[in-house]
Specification:
Blueprint: H1 2-15, E1 20-25, E2 38-40, E3 43-44, E4 48-55, E5 60-61, E6 67-71, H2 79-84, E7 88-95, E8 99-110, E9 120-125, E10 135-138, E11 143-154, E12 156-164, E13 174-178, E14 185-193, H3 197-218
Antiparallel strand pairs: 1-3, 1-14, 2-4, 4-7, 5-6, 6-13, 7-12, 8-11, 8-14, 9-10, 9-12
Helix pairs in contact: 1-3
């Protein structure tokens, strides 16, 4: 019985993992124009197949050095307008075959919108078809963003960062992310192997045997 308990404990330890960087982007020395509108992550965690950032079809990539920004966010007065007109930045993370992710945090360096860019941003994801707000931000200058998340059992997740402004509707607007030091946009979480059916059956069998043995011991 002790051997069975040890096996089950080892199984549980193998299924657990500490939160780490899943994917991260460094915008130093590049921009959305030079990168051709799409940029692969500079850092990929173990068992992550791919990760990239791009711009929505309603945004025009901008070539300011060491940023990931775009023009033509405005006039977009509401979140509904931003969704309808594809006013967003987008990044996607995909786990390797046979693995799944639990995403626990997003962090980024938002660029100062200045006097013309959108000051309101909303983060959504493909997990629910971009319907629920994961975070709502109001910018007042360069700002470090950090948002706890709880997206478990995912193989591929795409995030959209929608921008709008109910006041600055008469300007074209520039907005996005900037470079400081190191990673400028980071997705944190864990990557785990998808349990094989045989492994799950073995675990269920072991737990059942443990329950039966404990009941007999109480008699």
């Amino acid at each position: 019985m002790k051997k069975l308990l040890v096996v089950l404990l080892l199984f549980g330890m193998a299924a657990s993992a500490n939160a780490d960087v899943i994917a991260a982007w460094d915008f130093n020395g590049t921009n959305a124009v030079d990168a051709g509108g799409i940029l692969a992550a500079a850092v990929l965690g173990g068992n992550v197949q791919a990760a990239s950032i791009t711009v929505g079809s309603g945004i025009t990539p901008q070539n300011t050095a060491s940023t990931w920004i775009g023009d033509d966010w405005l006039p977009t007065a509401t979140l509904a307008d931003a969704v309808l007109n594809n006013k967003y930045l987008e990044w996607t993370v995909a786990a390797a075959a046979g693995y799944q992710m639990t995403i626990t945090n997003f962090a980024g360096l938002a660029r100062d919108p200045g006097g013309t860019g959108p000051t309101n941003f909303v983060l959504r994801s493909s997990v629910d078809g971009y319907t629920a707000d994961l975070a709502v931000y109001q910018l007042a200058g360069n700002q470090a963003l950090s948002t706890p998340l709880s997206l478990s059992g995912q193989t591929t997740v795409t995030f959209r960062y929608y921008g709008f402004d109910p006041v600055r509707v008469g300007t074209t607007g520039t907005g996005g992310f900037r470079n400081l030091v190191g990673n400028d946009l980071t997705i944190t979480g864990t990557i785990m192997a998808v349990p094989e059916p045989a492994s799950m059956a073995l675990l269920a069998l072991g737990l059942g045997a443990l329950v039966v043995a404990r009941r007999r011991a109480k008699r």
